[in-house]
Q: What sequence folds into this?
């Protein structure tokens, strides 16, 4: 089966929306806030953020956390630097397979390789050729130097790669079912499989089709674009959030946290990862859909009261669907999310808009479609997302192709 990997067209900010900041009383510490900016951003963690399970994985990191925390009741700021990976000795490098080495996969693949892990990139077409001949390059905002991985193992099929300890699934969500067959030869019960895709349904599809127990739930918030074969342009954020769906701290989650720390990748191991995933889905349902339908950036969408209101209504519907499933999203965060989106990613086109501009298939089904399906299961009204889904289906260049 022909699987379209994002090796030559993937750019993703849908799994890269800003970290939401709640709008409760200013006297309360936010559960989580991230300052806008470059790689090396500051993560501020309020003392009541007990949803973060990950613990420091080295004596250096433990000492740094104690230094910046300054005692309970003070907000801690953890800095992530471009050389942070040098602080974590690599005792047990992982064999990592990045399935879909486009913008997101290429970015994290580069950091993992630089951090000492044995990384194999799965790509195709011009991107595969570029990776094989010129290596992998991540361009950073000035004055941060680029990340260059001159020699990288790049293959077209996962079966050509060594057995993997960790598989990052970074293909478009509509390719998930097809990806199962490609991954089947390299995935064992001991393989950690982490989806960094859009939507909230991919983990279930992968686990069921591959005969695995429930997977870790993962997502990333990042601004990246694939600008040329083997070349990724980074514009902001870049944190991986993950956790067990039942909220426990498992050995595989701790191993993943240690692997990310060794590569200097900002991350959070969370007990409320389903909340995080649905809050992100709400952002996608609003911003990706409306920006694509109006051919507008985040700034342009929010500048017009009618399109801004449409984003809010889509987000609030998604929140209501999450609540109906027992997922305790923060219902009063919307205004802060809009403000943070405007200041953090004002002119960055959402990934669905980028796909439309490139005349490529859209991911509306994994975003608004997921909201509508869950709404139908729970009996929750979702007229705005139903409308957005119908309009995006009509707009999708692939919907007009003959079978």
A:
């Amino acid at each position: 089966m022909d699987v379209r990997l994002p090796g030559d067209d993937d750019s993703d900010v849908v799994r890269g929306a800003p970290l939401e900041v709640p709008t409760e009383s200013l006297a309360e510490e936010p559960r989580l806030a991230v300052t806008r900016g470059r790689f090396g951003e500051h993560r501020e963690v309020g003392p009541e953020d007990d949803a973060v399970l990950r613990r420091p994985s080295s004596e250096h990191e433990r000492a740094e956390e104690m230094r910046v925390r300054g005692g309970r009741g003070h907000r801690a700021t953890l800095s992530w630097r471009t050389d942070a990976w040098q602080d974590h000795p690599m005792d047990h490098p992982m064999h990592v397979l990045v399935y879909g080495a486009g913008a997101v996969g290429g970015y994290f693949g580069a950091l993992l390789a630089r951090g000492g892990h044995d990384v194999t990139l799965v790509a195709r077409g011009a991107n595969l050729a570029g990776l094989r001949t010129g290596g992998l390059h991540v361009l950073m905002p000035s004055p941060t130097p680029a990340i260059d991985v001159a020699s990288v193992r790049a293959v077209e099929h996962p079966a050509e790669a060594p057995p993997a300890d960790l598989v990052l699934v970074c293909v478009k969500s509509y390719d998930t079912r097809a990806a199962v067959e490609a991954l089947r030869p390299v995935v064992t019960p001991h393989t950690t499989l982490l989806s960094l895709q859009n939507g909230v349904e991919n983990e279930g599809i992968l686990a069921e089709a591959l005969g695995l127990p429930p997977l870790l739930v993962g997502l990333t918030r990042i601004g990246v674009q694939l600008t040329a074969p083997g070349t990724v342009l980074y514009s902001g954020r870049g944190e991986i959030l993950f956790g067990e769906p039942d909220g426990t701290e498992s050995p595989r989650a701790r191993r993943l946290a240690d692997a990310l720390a060794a590569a200097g990748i900002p991350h959070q191991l969370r007990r409320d990862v389903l909340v995080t995933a649905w809050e992100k889905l709400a952002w996608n349902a609003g911003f990706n859909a409306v920006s694509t339908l109006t051919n507008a950036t985040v700034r342009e969408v929010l500048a017009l009261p009618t399109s801004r209101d449409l984003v809010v209504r889509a987000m609030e519907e998604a929140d209501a669907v999450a609540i109906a499933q027992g997922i305790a999203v923060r219902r009063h965060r919307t205004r802060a999310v809009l403000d943070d989106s405007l200041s953090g990613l004002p002119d960055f086109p959402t990934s669905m808009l980028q796909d439309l501009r490139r005349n490529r298939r859209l991911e509306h089904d994994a975003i608004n479609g997921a909201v509508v399906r869950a709404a139908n299961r729970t009996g929750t009204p979702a007229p705005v997302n139903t409308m957005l889904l119908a309009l995006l289906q009509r707009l999708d260049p692939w919907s007009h192709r003959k079978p």
The domain at 89-270 is CATH 3.40.50.720 (Rossmann fold). The chain is about 40% helix and 15% strand. The CA atoms of residues 169 and 195 lie 5 Å apart. The first helix runs from residue 59 to 69.
